[in-house]
Amino acid sequence: MKADVCDGGMKAGVCDGGMKAGVCDGGMKADVCDGGMKADVCDGGMKAGVCDGGMKADVCDGGMKADVCDGGMKVGVCDGGMKADVCDGGMKADVCDGGMKVGVCDGGMKADVCDGGMKADVCDGGMKVGVCDGGMKADVCDGGMKADVCDGGMKADVCDGGMKVGVCDGGMKADVCDGGMKADVCDGGMKVGVCDGGMKVDVCDGGMKADVCDGGMKAGVCDGGMKAGVCDGGMKADVCDGGMKADVCDGGMKAGVCDGGMKVDVCDGGMKADVCDGGMKADVCDGGMKADVCDGGMKVGVCDGGMKVGVCDGGMKADVCDGGMKAGVCDGGMKADVCDGGMKADVCDGGMKADVCDGGMKADVCDGGMKAGVCDGGMKADMCDGGMKADVCDGGMKADVCDGGMKADVMEG
């Protein structure tokens, strides 16, 4: 289809018949590279790569995406499900045999193992360790920072030297700390805590949760509802008189009615409602799931029935959804999504990235930003006439053009 060759510049590729093949021995990226940073090899599927020492390697024989790397940073293997990662020494390892996600890591930072429940972590030397044999989640750590052990209930924490310690013998969760930062004790109800000198204290005698603190950082009092907090000078204060949650604070950091601060929560019947007319974030929901409204801050959203809707006329991100999964329109910010029926569509006329998809899977369009693409039928097509990367680029660094097949590179200079 096309071949790029560069033996000292930024990218080098050689295509001998298949979809794409690149070889770069000194530049920034190399396709079909067995020791460098990335290697791509595709024999018919979507994208396929094999990296046996570098940073990332992709191998896909029919599924969505599959990474395989036995020494680098990430390794994945996908045989039919959604995604599967396998790493025997690196940072993360996932293995999925049919369920949602399964991982096994015997030395790295995180390891997931799920045989039927929702998620299970197992790691015998890293930061977190968990074992789930039937319940929802179970963590076990014998020396690290946190350790959970659940034998029938929902969650149980046990740690005899670290930062947090919990023991739950029947209820939902129980924490016990004899000198550390937090201490919870549950004898039958949902959660009960008693702390006589630390940072936080929980006391619940029948309701769901109750916080009481007369000088520390947080203080709450629950008399029957779900949660109730009262703070007259501390950092956070919760006040609930019947609904789900209500925040009121007239001097601290967070307050259930804030007219200029950072965040404000106000709920009159729905799930959650935030109103902020000058701060950083504001949520307003009148019936749907969540709605954000902000006319000058960082994020703004308005939801009138769908799942999530955001509108931002100058901030960083803006989402607008009229029925599909996610839709956004951004006329000057960093990213904007617009989707009228397909999976995802981005449109940005000056920002960093913009995607426009009218039927295929994904399409990028940007006339001055960093990346731009246009896909008219195939899987993906990139086009950029001035930015950093350009698909169909006539003088820049790289150019991709797809007119029907999977992916094609075109470079005139």
From TrEMBL:
<protein>
    <submittedName>
        <fullName>Uncharacterized protein</fullName>
    </submittedName>
</protein>
<dbReference type="InterPro" id="IPR011049">
    <property type="entry name" value="Serralysin-like_metalloprot_C"/>
</dbReference>
